[in-house]
Amino acid sequence: MNRNFEQNEQMTIQEIQEEIVDEFSMFDDWMQRYEYMIELGKSLPLIDDQYKTEDYIIKGCQSKVWVHAQMKDDKVVFTADSDAIITKGIIAILIRAFSNQKPQDIIDADTSFIDEIGLKEHLSPTRANGLVSMIKQLKLYAVAYQTQLN
Amino acid sequence: MNRNFEQNEQMTIQEIQEEIVDEFSMFDDWMQRYEYMIELGKSLPLIDDQYKTEDYIIKGCQSKVWVHAQMKDDKVVFTADSDAIITKGIIAILIRAFSNQKPQDIIDADTSFIDEIGLKEHLSPTRANGLVSMIKQLKLYAVAYQTQLN
Amino acid sequence: MDGREISLQFRFFTSFKMTNKDTIQSKLNIDTIRKDFPILFREVNGRPLVYLDNAATSQTPRQVINTIVDYYQNLNANIHRGVHTLSQEATDAYEEARRKIQEHFNIAKPHEVIFTSGTTHSINLVATGFTSFLDKDDEVLVSAMEHHSNIVPWQMLCERTGAKLKVIPMTVDGELKMEEYNKLLSQKTKLVFCNHVSNALGTINPIKGIIDAAHGVGATVLIDGAQAAAHIKADLQALDVDFYTVSAHKMCGPTGVGILYGKEEWLNKLPPYQGGGEMIAEVTFEKTTYADLPHKFEAGTPNICGGIAFGAALDYMNAIGFDMITEYEDELVRYATEQLLTIEGLKIYGTAKHKTSVISFNIKGIHPYDIGTILDKLGIAVRTGHHCAQPIMDFYQIPGTVRASFSFYNTKEEVDVLVEGVKKAKSMLL
Amino acid sequence: MDGREISLQFRFFTSFKMTNKDTIQSKLNIDTIRKDFPILFREVNGRPLVYLDNAATSQTPRQVINTIVDYYQNLNANIHRGVHTLSQEATDAYEEARRKIQEHFNIAKPHEVIFTSGTTHSINLVATGFTSFLDKDDEVLVSAMEHHSNIVPWQMLCERTGAKLKVIPMTVDGELKMEEYNKLLSQKTKLVFCNHVSNALGTINPIKGIIDAAHGVGATVLIDGAQAAAHIKADLQALDVDFYTVSAHKMCGPTGVGILYGKEEWLNKLPPYQGGGEMIAEVTFEKTTYADLPHKFEAGTPNICGGIAFGAALDYMNAIGFDMITEYEDELVRYATEQLLTIEGLKIYGTAKHKTSVISFNIKGIHPYDIGTILDKLGIAVRTGHHCAQPIMDFYQIPGTVRASFSFYNTKEEVDVLVEGVKKAKSMLL
Ligand SMILES: Cc1ncc(COP(=O)(O)O)c(C=O)c1O
Ligand SMILES: Cc1ncc(COP(=O)(O)O)c(C=O)c1O
């Protein structure tokens, strides 16, 4: 699966999202989708332990999620971790789509693919898993770097 | 109507209550009953103005009701007033039954005749007219005098 | 009769747009509306109920009742932090209600809407929160026509802090004396509180002017919207008010829920009111950190069903339209005023130029309680007494009034029943 | 299996009366009971709902829903002081509910029942009221297993007064260390607060002993009955407790209402909490005198419908009978415990000798959130997280637990679904 995280240096966010939607469309039921998501979680580019602190935690999740971002050339590279494996799968999917992309592209990105891969139930802002907070946080990093670039 | 207040020196509470029930039973509808009650209110033995103070007010009424009691020989004599005429009618009926009676008889008196004369709606302890508070107050006076007697 | 011929008697409806009564009644389709309110078909003492106690609490349409039933049959769960579907659906519905309230009152941010158990709770939250912001040289101004809920909490605040409570006086018509108000305002004024509509008199207070003048001296303003909200759709951003309070039960919603609107900066400044679940971010026995808005002020399990049903009540009223509601209610009150004043000895308290939905009156020589009792016998529900506004009664030196208060589901025919009832009561009682 | 052969595993049910499971289930007629709860027939994610989040909020029987509908269709009016029939009928119904609560908890006087919006409100009322009764040399004791609602208000009180908060420690089984408690008690102890049942662990605390020992040093005791009330019928006079709190939504009642029980002498001593309508006897701008109990603590329009529906919920539960409920729920929990413990790596938190209706657990190596999410997919509603009892999680050094909590309308079959679900989750997540 690590393949995906390397490959997407060449692909646009849109293309990666389509790829993810394709992959998930192979599954018939939620169980397979969740198992695949958990699988993806295991391939998440892990955050360096030094960043697993309060400062890097995303609020609004029942489980802990840490995200770190840095600029490499003109692209934002994300790493993350979570103490819950489903949450890890969710953030892995987001990072696969958003990491190694230009800040402005991240800011502009649509996230409706989440719905298409059958994770719609995670999309409400009131959800305890914090998917919406995660997207917000990733985009905030992008905004911060975009501001530096301007 | 004053007749009633004089007469009852000879009658028991029970007898007076029956007399009142008889009188009210002549009426076909609430309107006549209320008109008669208002009439009775006008014949109420009025409280001396010096007692129309906070000390003599009965709580729990939307209108003001003052009641005064004193012992004459071995009987309790009540006087009262109210700024609302229906309330005055209600207290007049009570006083007609209870005034000029021995404390113990007042304490022991049943008050279900109120129901029989069609004033049932006033009998709940939560009612704003304070009928229940009035009965309580009259009986409290009787208790106080009875204690003196013992 | 035509709009330009409004007689002196109705001068307090200068802003009234005159339309043919039947047209309004049919524009609103009152018959259809009334069918939404099952209770209106009840009998009281053998007569059809005529419910004219809307200022105390409004009636509840079946759409709201159905929302409640649906909640308990399909959605009931504790909200926030729950992972399971029921909890998430209940949370969504509750937060959607908050959003509806935000939209209705044109509030900038959803978390500026704090759910409370009602106006009284909302006001106490603010009054308690201000304890550390006031000292004995400060002054707080209260209008002369407040409900006890908007007096007592501030008296308690003044007792705690030593600040001084000053009263903005009113005229015999029941209008605030704005020149006096402007004179009372000074650098010492820290808080001003006033209702939007007086529940005892029906006066619509000039709150925009009150707010702007207060802000001119740096004072904070709380407007008690409890009585206004069923009749006037307030635009809280346009008003620039600091705090605004509403009770759902007065606007077709359920009992036990209301809101406090507060500007974000104020809500951030105020300390939490109650401690408990939801309102904290982190708890140890040594230290507790508080959660973000709105949770900081929403300790414990809230009235979840109540909040959701409040949203349904707003939907219901907005589907009818507040313009229509206001126009129709004004018409009803004008008609009722006209008819009541034909009764000799009847005096109306509260004759402000701008008023809404409330007629407080007495008949010379008769106690209001007596009139209320006879009207009840006739199936007519009005309120009698001081209406939790004793200072107003003291002002007029009366023990209380009879108050008929109207809603959009009342009719001209009900006004006629009221007027006949008052006449009957007068003939019995005088 | 026979009562005298209870294995070690179930030693925490010493008081458990062993009966044939099917007999109990049929004694209670669970099928009939379940039909009273429309929500139990809902589907979640395509599966029949298995609702095991009863400790967060219980479900509502149609008898209670019907009471609510009936209220809004026939009775809705503002209460107290109203002369008209509707208001008087609503007042009677509300006061009748107070009387039912009084009777249920064997309370001496109806006005010792204060209606609140729930336990959190009740506790804050007391904690705020005690501000002037404490000073910096005083101590207050809190158990180690409290809900945030029974911690934060007292922390705030201690901050205001300088009094010291001390913690009654617990064992790994989740039992309070009573010897430590007795050592902590001294003449300095002014207040002790503890829950009757822990919502996170299910422990039934020995509150009679706690109360008596506290009274021995002259301390006042508040028992948080929020979690107990659905399972245990407390006799408050026999307990001689000073304050007791309940939330209706945890015992088949509606959201947004609860009670504070207080001994009359305490309620008379405590200052009013909120200012507003109802709670005053006389208001002028200079001075306000407060009304008698219970009104002194019931400012503003209460949750009238909620209070009445709370009464209906008590009627419903009492018709089934608390003895039956307790016996059946104990049986369910015993069975669930037994079955869950067959899963390798599953650990239960809270293994006190006396416990009720709650099983908190984790599986080694799996985050509770993950288990909760998978269970939800299977239609099973459990709660995950710290259950508003972070200090307990800190004690066990875990981020949270999965909590399955039971009610009398749950079945053995639902327990089986839960156990299968946990196994499935484990296989997916490990
Ligand atoms: C033990 C305990 N105390 C207090 C509370 C708070 O109750 P409420 O949220 O109804 O105010 C709860 C509810 O979760 C509880 O379980
Ligand atoms: C103007 C005004 N303020 C405050 C209140 C109190 O509202 P509640 O009783 O819903 O807290 C009322 C209700 O009577 C009111 O009319």
Characterization of this structure:
The complex is a heterotetramer, with two copies of chain A (150 residues) and two copies of chain C (430 residues). Chain A has a single domain, classed as Alpha-Beta Complex (Sufe protein. Chain: A), CATH 3.90.1010. Chain A is built from seven helices and two strands, in the order H-H-H-E-E-H-H-H-H. The longest helix of chain A is centred in the last third of the chain and has 19 residues, at 131-149. Chain A has a two-stranded antiparallel sheet. The termini of chain A are far apart. With 150 residues, chain A is mostly helical. Chain C has helices spanning 21-28, 30-35, 62-75, 85-104, 119-129, 152-161, 178-184, 207-216, 236-239, 264-269, 304-320, 322-340, 368-377, 390-396, 412-429, and strands at residues 43-44, 47-48, 50-51, 113-116, 139-143, 164-168, 189-195, 220-224, 243-247, 258-262, 280-283, 288-290, 346-349, 358-363, 380-381, 383-385, 401-405. In chain C, strands 4-10-9-8-7-5-6 form a seven-stranded mixed sheet, sandwiched between helices. A four-stranded antiparallel sheet of chain C has the order 13-14-17-16, covered by helices on one side. In chain C, strands 1-2 form a two-stranded antiparallel ribbon. In chain C, helix 1 packs across helix 12, helix 4 (85-104) packs across helix 11 (304-320) and helix 13 packs across helix 15. Chain C has 430 residues and is an alpha/beta fold. Chains C and D meet through helix 3, helix 4, helix 5, helix 6 and strand 11 of C and helix 3, helix 4, helix 5, helix 6 and strand 11 of D. Bound molecules: pyridoxal-5'-phosphate (2 copies). One pyridoxal-5'-phosphate (PLP) sits between chains D (118-120, 147, 149-150, 195, 199, 224, 226-227, 247, 388) and C (277, 300-301).
